[in-house]
Amino acid sequence: MSTPNSDRVRGELLRQWRLAQELEPGALARRVNLSAAQIQQLESGGSSLFYSEAIKYNAARKVAAALGGDPDSVIRSMAGDEGGQSIEQMSLQVLDDLIQLSEQRKKAQQESSSNGWHFFRLLMWLTFLASLAWGAFWLTQHTDLAKRWLSLLKTQLAAVTAGPASAAVVAEASAPPAASPEASAPADSASLAIASLAGAMAASSSPASTSPLSATQVALSSPEALCQSTEQGTLLTSKIPSKAGDMVYIVPLKAGSVCAKDGTGKSTVLTLQAKEGRSVYGPPPWRLYFEHADQAQVYFQGERLRWPELPTRAIVLREVKPQ
Questions:
Q1: What transmembrane ranges does the database entry give (predicted)?
Q2: Half-sphere exposure of 60 (CA within 13 A, CB side)
Q3: In a 10 Å sphere around its CB, with 0-12 CB exposed, 13-18 middle and 19+ buried, how is residue 22 labelled?
Q4: DSSP state of 45
Q5: How many CA atoms does the CB half-sphere of 24 hold within 13 Å?
Q6: What's the CATH superfamily of 4-74?
């Protein structure tokens, strides 16, 4: 049911702009990430498809900008409205300012450290080139010994690819005979070093050492797979509920995917930009799975819920009956 505040949206102006561009409500809805029903409600009046009046005003401004019009011209001013901004709009504006300030400080720190990073990279390259030069000089002075080491290394690597069991057999069969104490000492040391290397490579290539992906990593492999997550999630409830729990409004602070699962098990996958809000309808309780563990704004039962202090990718929303 619409309220007097709902008439502040100049729906006739949005309709004129849309018809001038020969756009259907569905095509415009896909462009601004809303539903066709919400577009029609913005043009004809009402607020049942929007979580709050402030969110409806933001949607109207978003549609106006997409149609090339003035976003502020689609909202009628009202006396005593404190500058035309609601508490939710003011809080969102403060949040935007804090995020912008944080990005500016991060950029300044990166610029201040860029010179040191370039110097470090130059030093690493010089060290690498010096190591190559020393290696080339050493090989020229120990040609015979280098050839024997390379031959033995090739044999050991071939044994590793054949399997861990055959590596020891090939190493024993390919061990060169000792000609003299002076000649056998370096060869024995090289054989021990290479055998250790082959054993480590064989152990790392065995199936037992391969660690499977965790459930969280598998769940984040694609947006649709978010709904298959087995995380229990952090329980959040409304402190002062004023609405039923059949709708959730989600505003992520970082671009990514969100899976909303209602009480019947129906899953809805949303791919949202940063600070882009969407409403999801269904019976409670709700389970929300986020691609990122960063904070997000979640509105449930008429209020914005407090995000958990510890980073989390899953939350559970349980309905509290209004008093």
A1: 119-139
A2: 30
A3: exposed
A4: -
A5: 4
A6: lambda repressor-like DNA-binding domains (1.10.260.40)
Q: What pLDDT digit, counting tens, does each position of 10-56 carry?
A: 999 999 999 999 999 999 999 999 999 999 999 998 888 998 888 99
- Rounded-to-integer distance, Cα 32 and Cα 17, Å: 15
Tell me if residue 290 falls in helix, strand or coil.
Answer: strand
At 144-202, the pLDDT tens digits run 666 776 777 677 666 555 554 444 444 444 444 444 444 444 444 445 444 555 454 44
Question: Would you say 235 and 318 are in contact if contact means Cβ atoms under 8 Å apart?
Answer: yes
* CA 117 vs CA 120, 123, 127, 233, 281: distances in Å: 5, 10, 15, 40, 50
Across 35-66, b (16+ Cβ under 10 Å) vs e yields: eeebbbbbbeebbebbbbbbbbbbbbbbbbeb
The token pair at 236 is 């959040």
Do residues 231 and 314 touch, judged by C-beta distance below 8 A?
Answer: yes
**For the chain, the helix, strand and coil percentages under 3-state DSSP, each to the nearest 5:** 55, 15, 35
The Cα 289–Cα 227 span in angstroms is: 7
Instruction: State the pLDDT confidence band at 118, using cuts at 50, 70 and 90.
Output: confident
Residue showing tokens 């990430």? 33
Give the DSSP H or E segment for 102: helix 87-141
**How would you class 323 by CB atoms within 10 Å of its CB: exposed for 0-12, middle for 13-18, buried for 19 or more?**
exposed
